[in-house]
Amino acid sequence: MARIPRRLSTATALLGVAVLGVAGPASAAETAHNKKTQHLTDRPTSGMAKSCVERDIHLAAGTYDWLQSGGLGERSNLYLGQGSYTWRDCLYPKNGYYEHWTSLNPDHPDWETIRLNGDWKPSVPGNWTWGSVLDPRF
């Protein structure tokens, strides 16, 4: 078994740390999605079951645009604190349209849940993708 001089192994280890410690190019935070694809009718009724999609997400502090895909709700330049949130989208069938409710419920006990809502009617029956998007502005 060959012996590696202690100085050489120490220098190699330090070089490895230096290379790993070099920061890559800065990039903007990525857009996050909370979406579901399912068959929807263009003639919903209030007796039909609601449908929801939910996920946990950890967000950096900053300003976001929050938009519903499907529903018409949106909030621009929404400041969110750093932390974990439960992100939920639900479609509630009504007579002739769907109510789309979206919420961000922070794990932080002193912060309130925020909500969006909008009405939506698919133009034809079929498989539709609906939900919401958080687009970081930083």
Largest sheet: 4 strands, antiparallel
Q: Return the structural class.
A: mainly beta
Largest sheet, order of strands side by side?
Answer: 1-8-3-4
Our Rg estimate from Cα atoms comes to 23 Å
How many beta-strand runs?
8
Distance between the termini: 53 Å
What does this structure look like?
The chain has one helix at 6-20, and strands spanning 32-40, 51-59, 62-69, 74-80, 83-93, 98-106, 114-120, 126-136. 11% of the residues lie in helices and 51% in strands. It starts with 5 loop residues before the first helix and ends with a strand. A hairpin with a 4-residue loop joins strand 3 (62-69) and strand 4 (74-80). It is elongated, with a radius of gyration of 23 Å. The longest helix is centred in the N-terminal third of the chain and has 15 residues, at 6-20. The strands form two sheets. The chain has a four-stranded antiparallel sheet, with no helix packed on it. Strands 2-5-6-7 form a four-stranded antiparallel sheet, with no helix packed on it. The protein is mainly beta. The protein has one helix and eight strands.
What's a quick, concise take on this entry?
Helices cover about 10% and strands about 50% of the residues. The protein contains 1 helix and 8 strands.
